[in-house]
Amino acid sequence: MLRALGSLALALALAPPAQAGPPNVLLIVGDDQGWTDYGFMGSKDVRTPHLDKLAAESLVYPRGYVPSSLCRPSLATMMTGLFPHQHGIMTNDPAYPPGVPPAQRVKNEQYLADRAAMVARFEKNPNLAKLLGAAGYVSHQSGKWWEGDACRCGGFTQAMTHGDPAKGGRHGDEGLKIGRDGLKPVFDFLDKAKADGKPFFVWYAPMMPHTPHTPPDRLFEKYKDKTKSAHVARYWAMCEWFDETVGELLAKLEKNGQAKDTVVVYLHDNGWIQDPDKPVYAPKSKQSPYDGGLRTPIVVRWPGKVKAGKSDALAQSIDLAPTILAAAGLKPTAAMPGVNLLDPATVAKRDVLFGEVFVHTANDLEKPAANLRYRWVVEGSWKLIVPHAANEPKAAVELYDVAKDPHETENLAAKHPDKAAALAKRLDGWWKP
Fold this sequence. Notes:
Arylsulfatase, C-terminal domain
């Protein structure tokens, strides 16, 4: 009997610990940042020590992409796990009413109805906040958010964004204060989630390093002598300021004892190349079909569960929802085309990514093809860009070897017509407008 009890005690001592509850989820979304503008991605100019540390502790996909290089459709993809032509948010805004000044649009009945229709289209789709909420998660939204009231329309249990056009609601309103004006709303939420013993989902999407590029003077001073352009210096300083807020947020998780039970995911919504001569983005950047607008590192940290390292595999923001849901012990919906980035066998089977770039302001809310500018496909190191003639009548088909030519300077379509044709066939098999 004593021997049996001793054996039982030994077995219990060696047994793995009981399965803990579902992990917390922190999704950090940078806003308008170039894929090269991180220390861990090779930048010698931009300092991002906190994101560098996060990357060193994470599984990193340097060859990550968003499907569309504009913030609203890109963010909607992260929440729904669907491509823009699937979730219906293809543009930032509905058509502007002719002859109506910008300040008066929020009083125009048709414009308001069209905005409401876009939000309603988003609401029809399952999204991370709603799916996790049904599994017992509490959630918090801060930063960029286009889809109306983030609680009523988005499914968050707490949110900063009210989304009311009459009160300045468009792409985040009160939520846009996060980061630039501190992190107290997120910290208060984390404290309450800890006190209540609830698993949480945090959407932290500050409008950083997005314009206006107004970094603290102490950061601008660090960069102003590294470049001849004050505009570039301010952008670089904004990248570091954003990185500081990420460091504060991660430090709060550690202080609260929540870090070890939290899946942290990082990416940015679309790329940015700073114009050195004025405070805007350069070509081949935001709103373009080039990697300067579409590529982003995707970083996943889950202490004790995910081994740190870098993967050469292709990854995309459509993968976020399946990955996060799987970590929470949930299944993706049948409509989600992405894969679980924490399942290496599944990731290794995929050899292609697809995407689409639309106009900024809608031509037709009901017809995706009416708003389409480009479709693109990446297969291995090859990337094909196919313009949509209705909206880009002067554009040519472009083919690049992005391994040898990452900034897409030499169009190889004429030299490799067979490869271009094969990729075009795959693109049409994905979605042919």
